[in-house]
Amino acid sequence: MNASEIQMTQGTASVDPASPASFQLLLVEDDETIATLLSKQLAAFGHQTVIAADGRKALDDVVNRAFDIIILDRILPGIDGISLLERLRAAGIGVPILMLTALGQSVNKVEGLNAGADDYLVKPVDANELNARLHALHRARRWKKDDGDTLSAGDIVLSPTKFRAWRAGKALDLPNIEFKLLTEFVRNPGTMLTRPMLLERVWQYDFEPATNIVEAHIRRLRLKLTEHGGQDPIVTMRGVGYMLRD
Amino acid sequence: MGLRSLRALTLVFLLVFLATTIATVLGLLAVTHSTIAQLVDQRITAESDILAPQQSKLDRAELIARIDLLTRDRNTGDLGIVLTDPRGRQVAGNVQIGRPLPLGYSDLGQHDRIEGLTHGRALVRDIGGGLRLTVAAETEPVDHYDAARVRIYLAGFGSIILVVVGSTLLFTRSIRRRIVDMRATAEAIIDGDLRSRVPVDGSGSTFDRQAATFNRMLDRIGALMDQIANVTNDIAHEMRTPLSRFHQRLGLLASHAQAGPLRAELNEALNDANHLLGMFTAMLRIAEVEGGARRAGFAAVDLSALCAGIVTMLDAVAAESGHRLRVRAEEDIVMPGDRQLLSQMMINLIENSLRHTPHGSYIDVALHREGGEAILQVTDNGPGIDARDRKKALARFHRLDPGREQDGHGLGLPLVHAIVRLHRGDIALEDAEPGLRVVVRLPLD
């Protein structure tokens, strides 16, 4: 195993030292079985989940308790997910919302994001993937800074407008995709970025190619970053994703 | 051509009709001719009998006097009467006949040089005492009556023939047009265009109703085909939730502390579930594309830039698996489309070649404009696909090399096919000698 690889399995709650280990979550899901299974899996990561079986109960819960993140199913009895989302946003509730969509409804993803969701995930949900996204959402909320001209993380500095990047003061010669990839890491240092997250954000794909394009480009980026020496700043979490050391 | 062809049948019908008509005209002419001759014969026999009754001795002078009287009478003045003595000299009568007529009935013609007579009949009788009485009458009420009759018949029957021939040809052409329409539709359907229909003009004619019925049959077949296609999609939709639960449960089990000794097996099961999910994702993606809803989101897509970008992206992957990926794309090819789907189409095509060719193979991606179409070609020099398997390669779940279980789910090319159809293009698999060439044609507007 590579020194920068951390073997991670579910149940090891503290993955991301910079984030609080435990979130208060509201899961709005009408399928009882899935809701129970999901909350059990989330509990393994240390999160506490309140389940709401429909939109009305969800609205009550949101008023009565403070949640870190709301996980919202797209299709619900009574008030559907999108309407509920719009009501929450209209009521000034700014809690990050992760939308769950059923398999094969990619058109609806755009709709969900437009309605004010912060992220979306296709069911069935992989617990690691969901956990990584919850952390990413939480961090993005904490440091919602709109960057000036330069971004930095550790000894990496980059300028998205000038399309230039440096590590330890030395300029990096990065092709387009590697530059976008590095920008995504520098924007979210210390946050786990999963393969689907990177595909969405860097490539803007709403599908997953069969080949390992993320891995291939991460490998190239690593080579560029360690060209002039220094430790590999990207940590691989097997089966989950990648993280830039904070 | 045989008697079964429409053309031969028409021809035979027309020939028979023509022959029958001509026979009718000729028969009619002959019958009227003989009928008139009979009637005239009856008349001259009667007149001859009145002049010289059978078995009665007649005085020659009285006979001549009767002849005179008869020829002056208004009713019988048109008769020609001649009385000759035993030496053949004319002793009485009102006409000159140019030749000696035999006894009994005979035809008279212009060659007999009888004044005012073109066609007629004559009766010559021996009335005793060596005297011969000839009574002749015209068979034509007017001059050149036969010629006029032939002209009338020609005009009458000729117009009937024209009408029949004309309408038969029109009729045949109309039938032929209907048959050609129907055949064209059937052929279009054989070629895969299940939306093709026989033109209906709304006239409510038998042919029109036939076409409408034929179309209804095609609608029914189309609906059945859709049902069959939908079954797979429906199954996929229906199984989403149970599969989600199954996956979630397996995930939970695998993460359980007590799962230790079973973890390897559970992870294998989880992998299988993931494979199943990949298959479902692809099926539902195909269903989504085939649904056509994404057409609403079509926007101008720069295919050239898209192609270059994807090749650059996959170059990293190709390099790792020892493939050489080359691109030759014409600039500024822009078409209305779905950027995501067109990307997925190109990625799937290149991934397909990456997956099915050995290390060291090359993959050429070419994009150019031809007429109103963008033509994308992905060519490799791998083992290719057998000619008879090429069509099947676009069908769902048809894996050409079943031995390679780990390779995808057999839905890569069918998804490409669906995406191409959504963009109203077409796709062909060709032999690159050696290797496979996939040619995708997409209309630019």
Characterization of this structure:
The complex is a heterodimer of chains A (246) and B (445). With 246 residues, chain A is of the alpha/beta class. In chain A, 37% of the residues lie in helices and 20% in strands. Chain A has eight helices and 13 strands. Chain A has helices at 32-44, 55-64, 81-90, 106-114, 127-142, 176-187, 195-203, 213-225, and strands at residues 5-6, 24-28, 48-52, 69-73, 97-101, 119-122, 151-153, 156-159, 164-167, 170-172, 193-194, 234-237, 241-244. In chain A, the strands form three sheets. Chain A has a five-stranded parallel sheet, sandwiched between helices. A four-stranded mixed sheet of chain A has the order 1-12-13-11. Chain A has a four-stranded antiparallel sheet with strand order 7-8-9-10, with helices on one face. Chain A is elongated and about 60 Å long. Chain B is of the alpha+beta class and 445 residues long. Chain B has ten helices and twelve strands. Chain B has helices at residues 6-51, 60-72, 145-190, 206-238, 240-255, 263-291, 303-320, 339-356, 387-390, 412-422, and strands at 80-84, 90-93, 104-108, 120-126, 132-138, 299-302, 324-329, 334-337, 362-370, 373-380, 426-431, 436-443. In chain B, strand 11 (426-431) and strand 12 (436-443) form a beta hairpin. Chain B starts with 5 loop residues before the first helix and ends with a strand. The model of chain B has no long low-confidence stretch (mean pLDDT 85). Chain A binds chain B through residues 9-11, 31, 33-34, 37-38, 40-41, 44, 102-107, 122-127, 175-177, 203, 205-213, 216-217, 219-220, and chain B through 236-237, 240-241, 243-245, 247-249, 251-252, 254-255, 257, 277, 280-281, 283-285, 287-288, 293-294, 297, 312-314, 316-317, 319-320, 340, 343-344, 347-348, 351, 354-355, 408, 412.
